[in-house]
Amino acid sequence: xxxxxxxxxxxxxxxxxxxxxxxxxxxxxxxxxxxxxxxxxxxxxxxxxxxxxxxxxxxxxxxxxxxxxxxxxxxxxxxxxxxxxxxxxxxxxxxxxxxxxxxxxxxxxxxxxxxxxxxxxxxxxxxxxxxxxxxxxxxxxxxxxxxxxxxxxxxx
Length: 156
Hints:
By secondary structure, the protein is α+β, with helices and mostly antiparallel strands. It has two domains: 1-39; 43-155, Ctag/Cox11 (Pfam 04442) (Sandwich). The chain contains one helix and eight strands; from the N terminus they run αββββββββ. The protein has a four-stranded mixed beta sheet with strand order 3-1-8-5, with no helix packed on it. It has a four-stranded antiparallel beta sheet with strand order 2-4-7-6, with no helix packed on it. The termini are far apart.
């Protein structure tokens, strides 16, 4: 074997070693990124306050909602819960939804609560089905758990 063949063999061996190191680095980086994404879930249990209405899990309005466990939520995703809201006042009313007492307070910048209630008038003792949706921004950071109060009230 001449000198040029030995140099060529060394170059091939070094290139093969570099390729193996590169592939191992990619595999390790993929596992680390996967672990980071898996560990970025956030959890919550939200207290429900009702003013002039009853909030229930069932259509018969027998199983009251006092808190909602949103379970673990991945950043960039949402979770929906169905409940029934009954007008327990003496006059037709419309509903409003608010949140308060966010802990930590910066969670409100990354987490949103919405519903599909259309603003229709609800008569006394009438119940409407409502889907509450909690959405978590994909840019949320450093928040692994949070809490807040959900306030559903009737006016009219």
